[in-house]
Specification:
Number of strands: 0
Number of helices: 15
Order of helices and strands: HHHHHHHHHHHHHHH
Oligomer: single chain
Radius of gyration: 27 Å
Helix content: over 70%
Strand content: under 5%
Largest sheet: none
């Protein structure tokens, strides 16, 4: 048994090491080839010699460091969505890396639990939960980044309003926000500003900003800017009122969270209490508690208790979560 576990661990470690080496080697070789082609093209241009090879400097999407997996992901509709999700979470992973991590997090615990308990359903549930952990981490990072974006948004709007009232244009006010406000607002507004400098229309750059940051507040701001562009009006006054609405909504959200804090705590206690209590009872009397996973009736009771605990936690979460 110990030999099998050691072999599985060494195999997974070897695969991960090969993937990391391939990723670093592929990236460095691609960078060297690109720099070589650009240097040759610049030298030929300075010498007045026509160069036969066409220099392709277009951005190419790399969804995985493994070439076979990268070609497979490029054909899938899910891969661009995963890449977009990783960008929104500001996680420096590829879509292929996320899938491989989730697959490894599912297969290894599934095999070990099944090898230990010989229960297929229990091993599948534990493997599925651990396999979804990388996606949960990405969603957590995405939510935290969006929360930070919403927190800094009124300050960015105030800066834009003051800049436009001082005589700056909308484009220069976006550049001012990009340099003065911290990430993630500074990064996103810088991309929007640079897209306009590269020739995109204002509406296209704004729609791209909404696709990168699909927040309700950003949709209001973009709508106000585009309406002002078509019909005219005092954009600084409109953005000032939008900033006021966002601040009031934050204040109302904090009040709601204060009044529902007891309900959220109740949900956490009722969800974690069976697990903690079962662990403590196992420490006190392991023989009696082990009947839950060594007998057929005990396993059925564990499944039923787990399902009811999850359903109860989701119901409490639905009650205390209020959209503001």
């Amino acid at each position: 048994m110990l030999l099998v576990i050691v072999l599985v661990f060494l195999g997974v470690f070897a695969v991960a090491a090969l993937l990391l080496v391939a990723s670093g080697t592929g990236a460095s070789q691609q960078t060297k080839r690109t720099l070589t082609v650009l240097d040759a093209a610049l030298s030929a241009e300075k010498q007045g010699v026509a160069s036969d090879p066409v220099v392709d400097v277009r951005k190419k999407e790399l969804l995985s460091a493994v070439p076979l997996l990268n070609r497979f992901l490029l054909k899938m509709e899910m891969a661009p969505r995963l890449r977009h999700l990783l960008y929104q979470a500001n996680v420096k992973w590829t879509a292929g890396g996320l899938i491989l991590m989730s697959l490894a997090a599912f297969v290894i615990p599934f095999y070990l639990v099944y090898l230990k308990t010989d229960h297929l359903l229990l091993a599948f549930i534990i493997g599925l939960f651990l396999g979804l952990c990388p996606f949960g981490y990405v969603l957590f990072k995405r939510r935290r980044r969006f929360n930070q974006f919403e927190k800094l948004l009124p300050e960015a709007l105030d800066l834009m309003v003051n800049a436009m009232r001082a005589g700056h244009s909308l484009n220069s006010s976006l550049d001012l926000v990009a340099h003065e406000i911290d990430d993630p607002i500074g990064t996103e507004f810088r991309i929007c500003f640079e897209e306009q400098n590269y020739g995109l229309e204002l509406s296209t750059a704004m729609y791209n900003l909404i696709s990168r940051v699909p927040l309700h507040d950003m949709k209001m701001i973009v709508t106000a800017i585009l309406i002002q562009k078509e019909s005219g009006g005092n954009l600084a006054e409109v953005l000032d009122k939008v900033a006021y609405v966002i601040r009031e909504r934050f204040q109302l959200r904090r009040q709601v969270r204060t009044h529902t804090a007891q309900g959220r705590m109740t949900g956490w206690v009722l969800t974690m209490l069976p697990v903690i209590l079962g662990f403590l009872l196992y420490l006190i009397n392991p023989k009696d508690m082990s009947l839950l996973w060594t007998s057929a009736a005990g396993i059925k009771l564990l499944y039923a208790a787990g399902v009811m605990t999850i359903i109860g936690g989701l119901i409490i979460r639905k009650i205390v979560n209020m959209e503001v």
